[in-house]
Amino acid sequence: MFQIIKHEQFSPITFMWEVLAPDLAKASEPGQFVMVRIREGGERIPLTIADYDVEKGTITLMIQAVGRSSNEMNDLKEGDYLLDLMGPLGIPSHIDRKDGRVVLVGGGLGVAPIYPQLRKYKETGNYTISIMGFRNEDLIFWADKFLKYSNEFHIATDDGSAGTKGFVTTVLDDVLQRNDDIVEVVAIGPLVMMKACAEVSRKYGIKTIVSLNTIMVDGIGMCGSCRVTVDGEVKFACVDGPDFDAHLVDWDELMVRQKRFDREESHAQDCWDKECRAKKKFEEGQ
Known about the structure:
Blueprint: E1 2-9, E2 14-20, H1 22-27, E3 33-37, E4 45-53, E5 58-64, H2 68-75, E6 81-82, E7 84-89, E8 101-107, H3 111-123, E9 127-134, H4 143-148, E10 152-157, E11 164-165, H5 168-178, E12 182-188, H6 191-204, E13 208-211, E14 227-230, E15 233-236, H7 237-240, E16 243-245, H8 251-258, H9 262-283
Parallel strand pairs: 8-9, 8-12, 9-10, 10-11, 12-13
Antiparallel strand pairs: 1-2, 1-6, 2-5, 3-4, 3-7, 4-5, 13-16, 14-15
């Protein structure tokens, strides 16, 4: 079992775990993910490794409570244990450029998994331009970590409460217009955001990499749920990725596939909400 040594809440639904897992920390590389199960009979959840510290023997996971399983995860506190933690899985991000100018774009929770890539690009000698996007200022996290490894740093918020008003694509388009020597764009976030970033960079002919971990289920290539068509060929995000060339991904097909479990997820969340209400009434003695 793996102990949660830190639980930090960033918003009512966004939280971070720092988990004690020395072997995992030693083996982890940017772009990889783990499979997490918190209890017997619980769902196995794929989570991208947001950070790892070999000296402390920890990995960092960022989670958004959007369904039953992730809400259960949010109830766990420091000192609690995870039943299973398997990984690292997936092909590490291919980062071998030196002295290049690279743009890294993180949207919402995608800010966390893009951080290890930002750090490695910077440490290998690249000029890094980072862009993070959130709905509003209250949801911003890890700006200090990004500043440390960014030559240029930008924030976009939907409501304009911090940085540029609008989406990350607004900032990305401006950055690409002003810099004719960008060699690569990396974007991680919701599918609609990554697709939009791909369309912006396509105009400039700049290689763009995206991470498709959001469509995974079992994480080991057995269920086939994370099928994605890339350049006309069927790939599996968990074993062939999660990183892919954004300009070769069939985004329309991918958008449809992401909705395949909407009904089941809605039902599970309804049941969870009812259980929470029943538990609260019991605790209040009603």
